Amino acid sequence: MSRPEAYDEKITKLRRTARIAQLEVERVVGLCLGTSRITDLLDVGTGSGLFAEAFALRGVKVFGLDPDPDMIRAARCLVPAVSFHVAAAEALPFAERAVDACFMGMVLHETADPDRSLLEARRVARNLVAVLEWPPAMPTDPPPPARRFDYEEIDRVGRRTGFRDISLFPLTDMVLYRMMV
């Protein structure tokens, strides 16, 4: 059975050069790996496996999760060195402290329950949870494509879910939050 054309267009859109540049993939990966020794990582909301691939190329053992089976099929084809599974951010199928780090790239705003998603990430991570998100909306911005968090909200949710140190890294178009477990 062939994939629908819309599916192929979605994968192409997720991996286009301009999007990779906007996400600052290499910079984000460097900021995540620069905090402590990370040998294994869970990429929550992996999509087509873009960040999973970047982490794996740096020698990290990566597991990727996404609730969309089509995305997982694509990620498996595009990044065969990574173990990908269908799962939601609110119910991670990993034991407590199973990986050094969890990465959530452009996914927290998509979750039904951001608090629960962060609690789950904190539960399975030994050291770090990194969250890449849109910056807060500015009055001059067009309507955001999805929910946006302000810095104080991320800090409140992070502290409410038990993170001990939350650092903010403004990027050109995004914001990276590093939360220490």
Write the layout of secondary structure elements.
Layout: H1 5-14, H2 17-23, H3 25-33, E1 40-44, H4 50-57, E2 61-66, H5 69-78, E3 83-86, E4 99-105, H6 114-124, E5 125-133, H7 151-160, E6 165-170, E7 175-180
Parallel strand pairs: 1-2, 1-4, 2-3, 4-5
Antiparallel strand pairs: 5-7, 6-7
Explain what you see:
39% of the residues are buried. A seven-stranded mixed sheet has the order 3-2-1-4-5-7-6, sandwiched between helices. The radius of gyration is 15 Å and the shape is globular. It has one domain (5-180): 3-Layer(aba) Sandwich (Rossmann fold), CATH 3.40.50.150. It starts with a helix and ends with a strand. The chain has helices at residues 5-14, 17-23, 25-33, 50-57, 69-78, 114-124, 151-160, and strands at 40-44, 61-66, 83-86, 99-105, 125-133, 165-170, 175-180. The protein contains seven helices and seven strands. Helix content is 36%, strand content 24%. The longest helix has 11 residues, at 114-124. The chain is an alpha/beta fold and 181 residues long. The mean pLDDT is 90.
List its salient traits.
single chain; 181 residues; alpha/beta; Rossmann fold; seven-stranded mixed β-sheet; 36% helix; globular
